[in-house]
């Protein structure tokens, strides 16, 4: 076919079609079976593997996409989706995300895309205020927590090496003093990934207690046993237990050894915004950098991570760049000095929209609701025959096990087969567990009850 020339009408038809299908998806997401029911190969066959020689009308492409990809979609937005740590999407965030795509701002330069930069800067300032972190911190928007960790550790690595007279930005890492990267036994695996990208190697591992909290005495021993530049990674929210490290004690120990302290709080950092949960993060404001996600607890659509660094100049030095053809801002820092990319979408705008829509009270209510629903699920599951809740419920994570690893794995598989609740297996405390990570903004008391009922029914079916 001969493709039509682009004009406003073409946008209108394509977007109206996308709008209709998006609403149909969202309307069905609560009741459809949560898991996908086709493999990537099935979907590739359905989509057609050959690159067409001739073009296809936009409407036909979109219809073809929706019809054939649909069996391969997982209902991540379901209020009974507890896999990994994955948020849904709040309406205002989704709508703002569509606008971000339509506006198509390359959000790297402050002077060139001031609208996007302003919304992101406000979102950053509001976040610091909500979390109770120092207002002078710099905030960057990344694809996710992994790249937020990377951004913070890049600043950390360069600063701890600069303190011993080594300029990584000029001299690279070859021949540099070794940076001791130290982290707890139950750190998230992506902390290792971020460290690997930065040439920091494997961490020196500090033992953790039964809930996964770093052993502060052991941390002191590890720090005392060596010398030279050091970075200590702590955790706000263990993916199995939800536990928080003892920040006040661990930060004091780390700072006494001149180490940079980073806190991975991909989902758990948000507890700091809630008066009833803030005690979990006590002392966390003493760290040097923090990473979190908006696409988890805040429920903006994928993707949006957040990197926070106390010393803005350290972040800018590690991540920024200069080129004569780029119009650097004269006032403040450019967005590309706060994230790994130069060109990127204005992914902080949906975060601004959610914060504006919820306000302080709405954010607190969201966080408290997630934690309360986790508590209800844990209580309900603990009453089911043979189900043991393994962790102390402090935030949004619930880990359960049956009488044997095989039985626990069977429960998760049966839940997947049933489709009403999605909760995946993991290994924790030497056992196979099923994790319920309560991260969806719509998981409330009725959904928690429905979850327990569905697990009861599924359990009976495998007994
Ligand atoms: C504690 C923790 N840290 C880091 C990450 C990585 O986040 P992302 O997948 O957004 O990169 C996760 C993801 O679940 C997490 O739970």
* Amount of beta strand: 5-15%
Q: Please report the first level of CATH classification, the CATH class of the largest domain.
A: Alpha Beta
Question: What's the number of extended β-strand segments?
Answer: 11
Small molecules bound in the structure, each named once: pyridoxal-5'-phosphate
Q: What gap, in angstroms, lies between the N and C termini?
A: 58 Å
Query: Taking Cα atoms only, what radius of gyration do you get, to the nearest Å?
Result: 23 Å
- Global outline: globular
**Strand arrangement in the largest pleated sheet:** 1-7-6-5-4-2-3
Structure in words:
This protein has 463 residues and is of the alpha/beta class. It has helices spanning 8-28, 40-47, 58-69, 91-103, 114-131, 145-162, 168-171, 189-197, 216-225, 247-256, 312-319, 349-382, 405-418, 445-462; strands at 138-142, 180-184, 204-206, 230-235, 260-264, 289-293, 305-309, 388-389, 397-401, 424-428, 431-437. It is built from 14 helices and eleven strands. Strands 1-7-6-5-4-2-3 form a seven-stranded mixed β-sheet, sandwiched between helices. It has a four-stranded antiparallel β-sheet with strand order 8-9-11-10. α4 runs antiparallel to α12 (349-382) and α13 crosses α14 (445-462). The radius of gyration is 23 Å and the shape is globular. The mean pLDDT is 96. Residues 84-85, 144-146, 188, 190, 237, 239, 264, 266-267, 293, 305 line the site of pyridoxal-5'-phosphate.
């Amino acid at each position: 076919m001969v493709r039509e020339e682009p004009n406003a009408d073409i946008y209108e038809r394509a977007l109206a079609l996308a709008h209709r299908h998006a609403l149909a998806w969202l309307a069905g997401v609560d009741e459809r079976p949560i898991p996908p029911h086709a493999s990537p190969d099935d979907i590739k066959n359905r989509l057609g593997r050959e690159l067409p020689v001739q073009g296809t009308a936009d409407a036909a492409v979109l219809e073809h996409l929706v019809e054939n990809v649909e069996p391969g979609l997982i209902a991540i937005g379901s209020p009974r989706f507890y896999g990994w740590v994955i948020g849904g999407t709040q309406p205002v965030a989704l709508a703002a995300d569509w606008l971000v795509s339509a506006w198509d701002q390359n959000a790297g330069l402050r002077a060139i895309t001031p609208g996007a930069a302003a919304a992101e800067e406000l979102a950053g300032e509001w976040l610091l205020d909500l979390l109770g972190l120092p207002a002078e911190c710099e905030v960057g928007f990344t694809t996710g927590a992994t790249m937020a960790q990377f951004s913070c550790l890049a600043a950390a690595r360069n600063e701890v090496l600069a303190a011993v007279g080594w300029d990584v930005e000029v001299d690279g890492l070859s021949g540099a003093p070794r940076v001791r990267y130290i982290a707890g036994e139950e750190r998230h695996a992506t902390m290792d990934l971020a460290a690997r990208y930065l040439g920091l190697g494997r961490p020196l591992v500090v033992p953790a207690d039964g809930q996964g909290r770093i052993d502060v005495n052991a941390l002191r021993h590890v720090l005392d046993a060596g010398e030279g530049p050091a970075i200590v990674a702590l955790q706000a929210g263990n993916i199995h237990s939800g536990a928080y490290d003892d920040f006040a004690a661990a930060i004091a120990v780390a700072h006494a050894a001149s180490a940079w302290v980073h806190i991975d709080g991909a989902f758990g950092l948000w507890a700091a915004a809630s008066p009833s949960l803030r005690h979990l993060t006590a002392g966390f404001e003493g760290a040097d950098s923090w990473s979190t996600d908006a696409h988890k607890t805040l429920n903006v659509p994928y993707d949006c991570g957040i990197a926070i660094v106390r010393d803005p100049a350290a972040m800018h030095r590690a991540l920024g760049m200069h080129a004569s053809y780029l119009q650097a801002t004269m006032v403040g820092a450019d967005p590309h000095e706060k994230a790994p990319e130069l060109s990127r979408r204005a992914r902080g705008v949906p975060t601004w929209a959610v914060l504006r829509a919820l306000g302080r009270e709405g954010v607190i209510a969201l966080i408290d609701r997630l934690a309360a629903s986790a508590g209800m699920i844990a209580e309900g599951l603990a009453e089911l025959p043979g189900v043991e809740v393994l962790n102390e419920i402090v935030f949004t994570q619930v880990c359960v096990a049956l009488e044997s690893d095989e039985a626990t794995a069977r429960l998760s598989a049966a839940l997947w087969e049933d489709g009403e609740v999605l909760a995946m297996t993991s290994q924790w405390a030497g056992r196979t567990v099923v994790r319920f990570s309560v991260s969806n903004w719509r998981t409330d008391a009725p959904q928690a009850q429905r979850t327990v009922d569905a697990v009861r029914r599924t359990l009976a079916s495998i007994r």
